[in-house]
Design brief:
Structural class: alpha/beta
Shape: globular
Radius of gyration: 17 Å
CATH class: Alpha Beta
Low-confidence stretches: none
Mean pLDDT: 96
Strand content: 15-25%
CATH superfamily: Aldolase class I
Bound molecules: phosphoenolpyruvate
Order of helices and strands: EHEHEHEHHEHHHEHHEHEH
Strand order of the largest sheet: 1-2-3-4-5-6-7-8
CATH topology: TIM Barrel
Length: 257
């Protein structure tokens, strides 16, 4: 199966940026710039406080809205947390899970990423599950071991039918927010390895249908080369998703990719 049968998805991860008026302004600027885009799914993953504003601003457009995390329990005594059902009820479609900033600063583990993935799927959300190695792990030549372990644990007990609703974002931790991008060949090598790992777990037919994104300092300048690679089906974009023009350039690169 070829790349063009998989859905290309460009998702912005706004992180902890934008007040509600700023969120509305950014989406209003973006909307006309991308309104003609058909073959690429455009997603803006925004802070919880911006979800309602973002959903209203993008209603009836080709921009989908995602959250940046969700809790794994349905409800209860988890002060400060948001459940997958709460997001789904609002009309949120996607949720980023296992982002390296969550793993690094908020002690998230593969076990909780797995629980969150299952909770998100049960609520009807589409998880964007992030995996990626630390610089030290790459230097020690264990990138593939690290990635295989994350894939096996994060998708433990996730069925093939459920996996088809997931997106995997390969985000080398050393490339996130650092300005250091993986080369297109490095990105392709690991995205291909992720697909091969999925093929072992779920079969090649399933693996060929899964959208695998690259994320890590993707920007308007380097997007075209990264997205031209066979196994790079899209991007998870942090900093560059906060500028409508740059985000649009990346989306256009995906259209041509
Ligand atoms: C991210 O937050 O997922 C990300 C890839 O950030 P940046 O593009 O800023 O490196």
């Amino acid at each position: 199966m070829k790349k063009n049968v998989r859905k290309a998805i460009i998702a912005g991860n706004w992180k902890m940026n934008k007040t509600r008026p700023e969120a509305k302004a950014l989406l209003e600027e973006l909307k006309p710039m991308v309104s003609d885009v058909k073959d690429v799914e455009i997603v803006a993953c925004v802070p919880f406080t911006n979800l309602e504003t973002a959903l209203a601003a993008t209603a009836g457009t080709n921009i989908k809205i995602g959250a940046e995390n969700c809790h794994f329990e349905k409800s209860g005594a988890f002060t400060g947390e948001i459940s997958a059902d709460m997001l789904a009820e609002m009309g949120v479609e996607y949720v980023v899970l296992g982002h390296s900033e969550r793993r690094q600063y908020f002690a998230e583990t593969d076990e909780t990423v797995n629980k969150r993935t299952k909770a998100a799927l049960a609520a009807g959300l589409k998880p964007i599950v992030c995996v990626g190695e630390l610089l030290w792990e790459r230097e020690c030549n264990i990138t593939e071991e690290v990635i295989a372990r994350q894939i096996k644990l994060d998708f433990f007990n996730v069925s093939a039918e459920e996996l088809k609703k997931c997106v995997i974002a390969y985000e080398p931790v050393w490339a996130i927010g650092t300005g250091k991008t993986a080369t297109a060949d490095q990105a392709e090598e690991v995205c291909a390895f992720i697909r091969a790992t999925l093929a072992k777990l779920y079969g090649a037919d399933v693996a060929e249908t899964i959208t695998i994104q690259y994320g890590g300092s993707m920007n308007a300048k380097n997007a075209a080369e990264l997205l031209s690679k066979t196994n790079v089906d899209g991007g998870l974009i942090g900093g560059a998703s906060l500028k409508a023009a740059d985000f649009t350039t990346i989306i256009t690169a995906a259209v041509n990719g």
